[in-house]
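[SOLVED] Need 3D model of a two-part complex

Original post:
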Amino acid sequence: MSNIRNILPKEIDDLSLLKGIANRDNRAILQLYKLHYPYVERMILNNNGSKDQAKDVFQEAVMVLYDKVTGQGFVLESKLKTFLYAVSRRLWLKQLSKKSNNHYSIEQDGLEESLDLNEDLELHEVQEQQFEKMESALRVLGEPCQSILTDFYFRNKSMQDICEKFGYTNTDNTKTQKYKCLQRLKKLFFSGNPHDA
Amino acid sequence: MGKWTLQEFLEKADRYLADELNIEERAEFDRFRVENPLFEEKFQQHQALISDMMQYKRRAEFKQSLNDVLVQNYQSKAVFRRMWNVLRINGVAAAVVAILSSLATLYSTGYFSTIKRTTSDYSALRREVNNVKRNVNAQHTAIKNINNSQSEQPDMHYGATGFLLNKNGYVVTNYHVVNGADSVHLQNRLGESYKADIIYKDMTKDLAILHINDGEFTPSRNIPYSFRRQNLDLGDDIFTIGYPRDEAVYGEGYLSSATGYAGDTLAYQISIPLNPGNSGGPVFDHYGNIIGIISGKQKGIDGAGFAIKTEALMNALKDIPEEVLRGGLELSEKNSMSSLSRTEQIKKLQDFIYIVKVY
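Solution:
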């Protein structure tokens, strides 16, 4: 991508940024970072954090946003900046209190409004759990199963393509292979959950 | 309508979910699910799994993008910094000249030699017998013997520890212990003293190999310990016996780091109470295998002792020229203490550890 295309108009409204986030547009992500990261970094540096920790927290805050945006019935109730700042603040507080039993507080600096974030954070947590569960299931599943399933379901590749890519003799064999992979993934994924055993 | 196998059914389900079936096929699929509740359940599970997998992939790709953007951001900062450095270079050149000239002045006035002496925080652990006391004693003996011309034994300068490598009378201790020695004597716990010759010194490894050159020394028994060449793990318990005073002193602790002072890979950091006189003492693992040789500790830091690894000892032994050897240098390979209790181990091995007296 050329540098010229990276230059966005200076004033970009929250809604088009959100649309970019939902579509995984790198320019939108970069813009989000440029506009809203500095506040978060300052808040964390002022509260016993490092730059790396600030980056991690901001990254997770963006994931909370992503889960919210891609979730059902998304409405933005506040400014994007306020949202990201408030989420980062909550996440950082959580980390601080995890480190020690002391109750930490971050001094008020006028940037946060009282937002009800519980629902968003819960949604994010559920998503993150599912994510980790699937991640470990896929890791155990291994190759070539992982690639076969990804190619078929996520990249919408045809059985013919997959057959050629993985060197199976015919599409029937490939179908059987895909079926076996799927059954194994099902077992792995649901085995962690007693309700679906 | 024939029955489908599960595989066929799930293939249909994929096409159903992707909206690739025509109206008749859809109806047939729906009907089949209603008639076969078992398959309906499989369908629900399949749908959930696929949707979870898609969601996982979407989030994974988004995370990846997020990461990429952050990494790119780092890089652009780096470029910026590099440019700034270029602009600064003239200023830097001027500063370098200024610093060099001041350093030269400091060097010529001997400033750095003092600094080095005062800031080295490594202390070797040979026991230095107090200089003043020694001088006073020397005067006393001189006065006492003023009338008889008989000369007395010279006074001990340093005390440290050493131990037998094999039954042929080879003993290892530290280089810093015997460096500059006029003569070296080894004394066992029964008070019997043997004269020893220094046959090899290695300053960089801080090792010295001695050989007991004394008719009274009888290489009678086999050595009860062996030498462990593999590295120990952090936290393994270890012990040592040394002579920080004229009696043997037992100390135990654990391996605290895989490298020694300033990252020395041929040494361990150990956490054992160490005092001057412990230098050259053996470090044993739990089973009584020798894993190292105590060499020193770091000043001002609690529990930071250092031991030279057995590996360095092996290397040093290989470097010894053949002509100075007086009998085989093979190390004892058998450990006859591994199943004994600690006190039994100590009883067995303390006969093989000596006070090294340097005159």
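Edit: The first helix of chain B runs from residue 6 to 17.
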